[in-house]
């Protein structure tokens, strides 16, 4: 069963990455009025970090056989996060742009790169 799930994920990795991208975009631009707040200092930064880590891993996994393109993907995802922050400040009245959010976004993408790189290098060395 796990083998079938792995094969399904491998065949649909790009679709999963696109879905996660759309989800991050939607969550970045919708109003979060009425959503319960967590009483943890800078909790939204953790959310940004986790979202962009997941986004980064999904895109890097989708292009797992093309290591040379990974730095391009990382750069594009960081730019994507910057664009969404600008859109939050310009298109919405209920969200604000925050450079701290962008730092959290970029940190998530960079950690995704490092973890993915180490994971795939380890797997390649085992073959």
TrEMBL record:
The chain crosses the membrane at residues 12-34, 46-63, 70-91, 103-121. Keywords: Membrane, Transmembrane, Transmembrane helix. InterPro entries: VanZ-like. Residues 29-119 form the VanZ-like domain. It comes from the Bacteria. This is VanZ family protein. It comes from Aureibaculum flavum. The lineage of its organism: Bacteria, Pseudomonadati, Bacteroidota, Flavobacteriia, Flavobacteriales.
């Amino acid at each position: 069963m796990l083998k079938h799930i792995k094969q399904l994920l491998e065949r649909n990795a790009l679709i999963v990455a696109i879905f996660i991208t759309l989800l991050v975009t939607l969550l970045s631009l919708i109003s979060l009025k009425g959503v319960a707040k967590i009483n943890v200092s800078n909790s939204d930064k953790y959310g940004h970090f986790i979202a962009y880590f997941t986004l980064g891993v999904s895109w890097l996994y989708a292009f797992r056989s093309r290591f040379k393109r990974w730095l391009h993907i990382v750069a594009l995802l960081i730019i994507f996060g910057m664009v969404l922050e600008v859109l939050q400040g310009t298109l919405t009245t209920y969200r604000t742009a925050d450079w701290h959010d962008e730092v959290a976004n970029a940190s998530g993408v960079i950690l995704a790169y490092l973890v993915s790189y180490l994971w795939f290098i380890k797997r390649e060395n085992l073959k």
